[in-house]
Amino acid sequence: MKRNWMLAAVVCLASAVTASAYEINWSTPDAGGVSSRIGYELHGAIGQSDAGTLSAAGYTLNGGFITTNAAASVQPPCAGDTNGDDMVDLSDLALLLSVFGSCEGDMQYVPAADFDNTGCVELGDLALLLSVFGANCQ
Fold first, then answer.
1. CA end-to-end distance (rounded Å), the chain
2. DSSP run (H or E) holding 72
3. Separation between Cα atoms, residue 120 and residue 123, nearest integer Å
4. How far apart are CA 122 and CA 110, in angstroms?
5. Span 17-54, pLDDT tens digits
6. What are phi and psi of 95, to 5 degrees?
7. What is the DSSP letter of 103?
């Protein structure tokens, strides 16, 4: 009987206790993105509190809201150097030939091989690479 009385008291006291409500409000501006191999390309949005220009080691990112042309792009430091190793050699030629004929939107398109920025890797890009073949970009 004494045990039942204790149990009833605990249940009554427990129902009288209320917890404080804690609330944490926060948000993060999320954005999607696109990345590309070899020639670095980034598409995305940066939250207003972080909007601005960031740059270091030759790379620049202009932040802001997504527009149809919101992009930061970094091309190799010298024309013909598709892989960024500061030399125009067979590996650059091989990469260009492997994506020859591709255009923006194609899976195999590599912006770093589009030296004349026409949106397609074509004869003009091949001619430019061959004209500087063997160059050291440093």
1. 92
2. strand 72-73
3. 10
4. 12
5. 555 566 666 555 555 555 445 555 555 555 555 556 66
6. -65, -45
7. B
Amino acid identity for residue 65 in this structure: F
pTM recorded for the entire structure = 0.46
Centre a 10 Å sphere on the Cβ of residue 88 and count the other Cβ atoms it contains.
25
Rounded CA separation 84/32 (Å): 26
Backbone CA torsion sign across 125, 128, 134, 136:
negative
Tell the burial category of 96 from Cβ atoms under 10 Å away from its Cβ (0-12, 13-18, 19+).
Answer: buried
Q: Is the dihedral of CA 76, 81, 87, 91 positive or negative?
A: positive
Residue 45, Cα to own-chain centre: how many angstroms?
Answer: 10
Compute the distance between CA of residue 98 and CA of residue 117 in angstroms, rounded to an integer.
18
The closest of 134, 107, 115, 51 to 77, measured between CA atoms, is 115
Comparing C-alpha atoms, which of 124, 106, 105 is closest to residue 115? 124
Domains (ranges, CATH) in the chain?
Answer: 32-74 (no CATH), 77-138 (2.60.40.4130)
User: Distance between CA atoms of 44 and 72, rounded to whole angstroms?
Assistant: 9
